[in-house]
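Course assignment 3, question 2. Fill in each field.
Student: A.L.
Task: Predict the tertiary structure for the chain below.
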Amino acid sequence: MADYAAEAPAALDVNTSGNATDSAIAYLQDEKPDADMTHLNLGELDLTTDEYILDEVDIHIQANLEDDLVKEALKTGVDLRQYSKQVEVELQRIEQVSIRDYIKESQNIALLHNQITACDAILERMEGMLSGFQSDLSSISSEIQTLQQQSVSMNVRLKNRQAIRSHLSQLVDELVVPGAMISTILESPVMEQDFLEQLHELNNKINFAKELSFRETLACSDIQDIVDRLKIKAVSKIREFILQKIYSFRKPMTNYQIPQNTLLKYRFFYQFLLANERTVAKEIRDEYVDTMSKIYYSYFKSYSSRLLKVQYEEVADKDDLMGVEDTAKKDIL
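Answer field:
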């Protein structure tokens, strides 16, 4: 009996060592009759032990008495002790069968245990990966919020830039002195249409530079020198051109109305001089007034001298004109 009890725990404990399964299989191969297995020491698995909790005995008895089979047995007069022994024997048989089935499946159970362990390791790695992914998502979420804030800030800056774009474009256009303007003012004759157009642009830039200088804008200093030089060159060419036209009035037998009409086409020249160089404008005006006064003086002097000559001419009498009396006056004035 002691040998049998020593062999049974070794056969039942399949998880304590690596040879537990082999020992259980060897034990089953030397399987003893069912009569001997009734004396098997099952430890905690033994259902015939009397170590019950006393506080729960009454509850179990009351529950058993309420069972339909127990009631039926009591009615028919069946001996409950004999019936309980039969039930006990049946339970022991079922228990032994379950143990043999468990031992037979010990290898599969061990394999399942290994598989479960491997699955636990895989799930643990997946848990680590998911934790890392969750932390990455948290960082990505914070980055997205940062990008959203930056996007809102950039949108505000874009709207502000678009709002001042037109003003800045106009400012830059006014500050830039094109190369075409420089070459035209320096090289083209004043009679050409291109010179007149560029002179208008130069006048606008001069006025704009004056406005910026009043506002103490630093960008004004970048173009002030170039604009001043172009203004001096334009004033010099305009002065020479207008003075030549005025001097042409002084030639004898000249129809002064023709050069006067020519000067009317370039009246903006005098406006430019009057706005930017009043000394030269005054010089040209004085020269024009002096020249025209001399011309008109000579014309009126010649006209008056011719009128005086008319006083000494003979007056028509009655022989020259019909209906004229002899008492006509000699003085026609």
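Instructor remarks: The longest helix spans residues 106-175. Residues 70 and 195 are 130 Å apart (CA to CA).
Grade: pending
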